[in-house]
Amino acid sequence: MMKKAIVFAVAAAMALTACSGGEKTAEVAVESETTAAAQGTEAEKEAEKSVGQEEEPGKKVGVSLLNSTHVFYNNIQKSMDYTAGEMGWSVDFQDASGDANKQLSQVQDFITKKVDAIVIAPTNSAGSKSMVELADQAGIPVFTMDIKSDGDVVSHIATDNYKGGELAAQYLIENILTDKTGTAAVITYSEIESCVDREKGFTDYLEKNAPDIVVADIQNYSGDQQKAADVMQNMLLKYDNIDAVFCVGDPAAIGALSSITAAEKDTKIIGYDGNPEGIAEIKKGGNWVADVAQDPEAIGKTTMEAVEQYLNGTNPEKEILIAPYIIDASNAE
Fold first, then answer.
1. How many other β-carbons are positioned within 10 Å of the β-carbon of residue 322?
2. Whole-angstrom Cα distance, residue 298 to residue 216?
3. Which of 48, 77, 257, 263 is least enclosed by beta carbons within 10 angstroms?
4. 14 CB contacts (<8 Å, ≥6 apart)?
């Protein structure tokens, strides 16, 4: 009897609910449950998708610079660091301080750290092959920047240094020795291939376009500013007159300027780099009349882009050259 009463009460309640619109409420409840279930499923899918597509940690690049005290390399480093930041990458910068053994140790350290790529500005073009081979054996791609290596790297990014030498010679002809006669000298950096390219671009252009301009002397300063001063002093003592000297780097030009000033000579200087100290001297209107300027920002950015291209599965060009340009009194500001 109790069971029948319960059944009757439930039936009555259902009937009452139906009359008061309960049927629609039930449908809404079912829909809500269905929607919640669907949303739950979607949330689970998104969570799974998020886990499956979790971003990989940013790549890490090891960079060994020839000399971090040089403003040119400072600017390259800033550009690389900024570009890496935009990529979400990190860069481990090391200063080789012009020491080949130190640079080798840095490359070995990069290999131990298992960086994704290595970039070097070799302290010496010849002999850097061993570093490249060590990285190759470890499966790490190597790129060179500014200075070439005798090893086989993925890509070399640098100023078009031969063209830079040509620009210096062209400036000499058009602005200093306009009658295409006179005496010139070169302070070079024989250990560094890019500097030799500058020297060769200069002498080749003069030989072709102004054969009566005699390149009386070419001496090596080995990247040492004081040695450049000594070299210039010896040249001024050795020759009665040197109309102009082409220095393959601004440190050489600074050294040469000190000796020319001390000797009270009128020898004109064409430097190479476009560093602030060179531009400041050009503005003074003295012996330092022009500079072949590089674009370190473009070199740094282009190097990082080449590394990114390679790590993404596409081979960059074997050699990427950045155009230089002349700075003189007309555009030094």
1. 18
2. 35
3. 48
4. 22
Q: Are 64 and 121 in contact (CB under 8 A)?
A: yes
For 285, half-sphere exposure in the C-beta direction (CA atoms, 13 angstrom radius) is: 1
Residue 194 has pLDDT above 80, yes or no: yes
pTM across the whole model:
0.76
Nearest Cα to 120, choosing from 195, 138, 139, 100? 100
- b/e map of 138-163 (b: 16 or more CB within 10 Å)? eebbbbbbbbbbebebbbbbbbbbbb
Collapsing DSSP states into helix, strand and coil, what is residue 95? strand
Tokens of residue 297, six digits = 């920002």
What distance in Å separates the CA atoms of residue 34 and residue 330, rounded to the nearest whole number? 77
Whose CA is closest to 144, among 162, 124, 164, 165?
124
CA torsion angle 111 92 308 297 (round to 10): -140
Distances in Å between the Cα of 92 and the Cα atoms of 60, 107, 115, 117, 288 are 7, 11, 9, 11, 37
What is residue 218's three-state secondary structure? strand
Give the span between the Cα atoms of 39 and 332, in whole angstroms.
65
Q: Which residue has the tokens 């074997």?
A: 318
Do the Cβ atoms of 319 and 156 come closer than 8 Å?
Answer: yes
- Dihedral class, residue 192 (left if φ above 0, else alpha if ψ from -120 to 50, else beta): beta
Give the tens place of pLDDT for each residue, 123-181. 988 889 999 999 999 999 999 999 999 999 999 999 999 999 999 999 999 999 999 99
pLDDT band at 57 (very low <50, low <70, confident <90, very high): low
Query: In terms of DSSP bridges, do strands 325-328 and 288-293 run parallel, antiparallel, or are they unpaired?
Result: antiparallel
Condensed to tens digits (0 to 9), the pLDDT of residues 277-296 reads 999 999 999 999 999 999 99
Which residues face 194 on adjacent strands?
A: none
Residue 137 burial by Cβ neighbours in a 10 Å radius (0-12, 13-18, 19+): exposed
